[in-house]
Automatic annotation (TrEMBL):
GO terms for molecular function: hydrolase activity; metal ion binding. It comes from Xenorhabdus cabanillasii. NCBIfam families: HAD-SF-IB, HAD-SF-IB-hyp1. This is HAD superfamily hydrolase (TIGR01490 family). The lineage of its organism: Bacteria, Pseudomonadati, Pseudomonadota, Gammaproteobacteria, Enterobacterales. It comes from the Bacteria. CDD domains: HAD_PGPPase. Keywords: Hydrolase, Magnesium, Metal-binding. Transmembrane segments: none annotated. The keyword Manganese does not apply. Pfam families: HAD. InterPro entries: HAD-like_SerB (IPR050582), HAD-like_sf (IPR036412), HAD_hydro_SerB1 (IPR006385), HAD_sf (IPR023214). SUPFAM superfamilies: HAD-like.
Amino acid sequence: MSQQVAVFDLDDTLICGDSSQLWTRYLWEKGIITDPRFIEADQKMISDYCAGKLNMQEYLATNLQAISQIPHEQIDIWLTDFVETKIKPVFYPAARKQLDIYHHQNIPVIIISATVSFVVKKIAAAFGVQTAMGIDMVMEDGCYTGDIQGIPTFREGKVVRLQQWLAEQNLSPQHIYFYTDSANDLPMCRFASEVFTVNPDIQLRAAAKAHGWKQLNWAL
């Protein structure tokens, strides 16, 4: 039984960019989304997220309208192509290397992201990460709705969901490594044993200096 676990944020941590925004752009390029308001909503989401004032339910209710009539099987087909064409090219080489190190050491790796779970899990699987958590969405008639199911993996919710998962797995690790770029993850930083900030935002950089957290600069 592992005494250690490694937890990674996804957006701007493992990848150079925001997977939610990249996904919307992918749907736009494919002509699946034709209303520019979805692109605008994503831009607002990014600025609200950075300012620490994002209303996640409001954003997802808008964002998922675009695909609310599309069967999840079709979404999954698009996601496979999306990961190949849009995510793999922006995955930090240093992130891949770090994931490999943990895999070789048999340390469980978990990706926890504030992006919807059907996107997060697809990306995680492509990089050999078995455990991934995102914001679970309610499904109706085989389609994703804009309603959040359970506790969203956002801010304090990431800690709660990780604790639930550890309890389910009967794990009580002595050491939790955590990697993130964002001050939205400060609750998780405080919960972890060892924090690595990846290209941190201003607020997180200040916290890293105050707490002596390691600062990494990952580039493509």
